[in-house]
Amino acid sequence: MTLFERVKTPGPVGAGIMMQPMGLSVLARLGVEKLVIERGARVDRLLCENEKGLAVVDLAYHAVDESYFGVGLHRGVLFEALFHEVERSPVRLRTGVDLVRLRRAHHRRWLEDTDGALLGPFDLVVIADGARSRLRESASEAASDVTPYPWGALWYIADDPLGASSRMLHQRVRGTKHMVGLLPTGLGPGAGSTPQTSLFFSVRGSDVPSWRARGISAWRDHVVEIAPAAEGIVQRIASMEDLTYASYFDVRLSRWHGDGVVILGDAAHAMSPQLGQGCNLALYDAMVLNDALADGESLAEGLDLYTARRRQHLAFYQFATRWLTPLFQSSLEPLGWMRDLGMSFASKFSFVEREMVRSMCGTKTGLLWGSLTLPKT
């Protein structure tokens, strides 16, 4: 087995992410859950308020299961935990290999790099190179529809000793055009010992240059006006250049596998981050693929099992994310008024609240009912 990585020297980079109970269950099976929890920040609640302080969404994990919680995490911590397991495994790791195309010859699969060299042959190719995947386009079995979202987020991670004590992902919204999020992010990768908080500012991609041109003072004032709790973080940001812009894609495939090829994670089903499930779904993909290949009597049967087992779960999250995104990131301001009133009212019903929490946990498999059963850890 060979794992190819484009970066010559992989290292911990990226923004804060949320590990949900679904993703944590996969990490527990891999034996790295304890490390991730120790380096991350426990999150018991999601609170989204409008700028007037009305709770649009107020969800606590214990509404579904007393043992459930989330973990705010620097993406680099997850990288370190998983990369260490790769280094300990018999997998052959090849770094600095930039793959651009999948090729077939004599019923075998080959990978072509940017120098035109062919690597292989392989019985199975697992494509997991993200939403901007180049390999996906050469997997002819899967007709794809890849659409960039017009909205993204400016983000920053700051030392914040008090942030971890909140145990809460806190969001403040103004209509559908403005959202500020504060996520406790734990101790970060390496030997860091100071708790951090990730700040996210929702913004239309085409507006980023104008925000950068207006300067850091105008941006700070705008953020604090919406989310006063963010003041301690934004005052530490020296310039707009310290903020990184993250863009997102919507990826739809007609199918996720073909003859000796399977596509996982964002390469297969990238979506906007409204439900915070990208990393969790990718981890679950990998676990289900492993089990399906073990259960199938042949490679082809194993891949068929994989797609069958993932179809319902992924269909729900793709549908729910596409439905929710305009309510939080769009220029349709009336949707913001409807969201504030409708979601705050609906969540007062215990059934609706539980199903919303299940959606947050990553376990929902149907619009009205249906949920994955996670192993107790």
Question: Any key phrases for this structure?
Answer:
377 residues, alpha+beta, seven-stranded mixed beta sheet, three-stranded antiparallel beta sheet, 20 strands, 36% helix, globular
Give the secondary structure arrangement, pairings included.
Blueprint: E1 2-5, E2 16-19, H1 21-30, H2 33-39, E3 41-43, E4 45-50, E5 55-60, E6 70-74, H3 75-88, E7 92-95, E8 99-105, E9 108-113, E10 118-122, E11 125-127, H4 135-138, E12 144-148, E13 151-159, E14 168-174, E15 178-186, E16 196-204, H5 208-214, H6 216-226, H7 231-234, E17 244-246, E18 249-253, E19 257-258, E20 261-263, H8 266-269, H9 278-295, H10 299-328, H11 333-346, H12 350-361
Helix pairs in contact: 1-9, 9-10
Please give a structural write-up.
- This protein has 377 residues and is an alpha+beta fold.
- The chain has twelve helices and 20 strands.
- The strands form six sheets. The protein has a seven-stranded mixed sheet. The protein has a three-stranded antiparallel sheet with strand order 2-6-3. It has a three-stranded antiparallel sheet with strand order 8-9-10.
- Strand 4 and strand 5 form a beta hairpin.
